[in-house]
Design brief:
This protein has 87 residues and is mostly helical. It contains 3 helices and 2 strands, in the order E-E-H-H-H. A hairpin with a 3-residue loop joins strand 1 and strand 2 (13-14). The longest helix is centred in the middle third of the chain and has 34 residues, at 15-48. It is elongated, with a radius of gyration of 24 Å.
């Protein structure tokens, strides 16, 4: 394998560059796991305060959408509910 000096691996891959990319990905995955845990704790706290976490997740998802996309989805939902006699 490589001796750490940046030597190329078979196929022309620079070992140090590859190692750097892999280490960056690993660090980002660790950060994502920590953030996911923080989010889980916030939802647990909200649940402890009496909030419905399913609704909170839905609100977060809705707030990520732009207004036009949200309105379109609401209109389609209304049409489907109406077709099923649920309105």
């Amino acid at each position: 394998m490589a001796d750490g000096s940046g030597a190329n691996l078979p196929g022309g891959i620079a070992a140090d560059q590859l190692r750097s990319v892999i280490e960056r990905i690993e660090r980002l995955e660790e950060e994502m796991a920590a953030i996911a845990n923080d989010i889980k704790e916030v939802y647990a706290e909200a649940k402890g305060n009496g909030y419905d976490t399913k609704i909170l997740r839905q609100i977060v998802r809705i707030r990520k959408q732009d207004k036009a996309e949200r309105q379109e989805q609401e209109a389609i939902l209304e049409v489907y509910l109406s077709a099923l006699g649920m309105v």
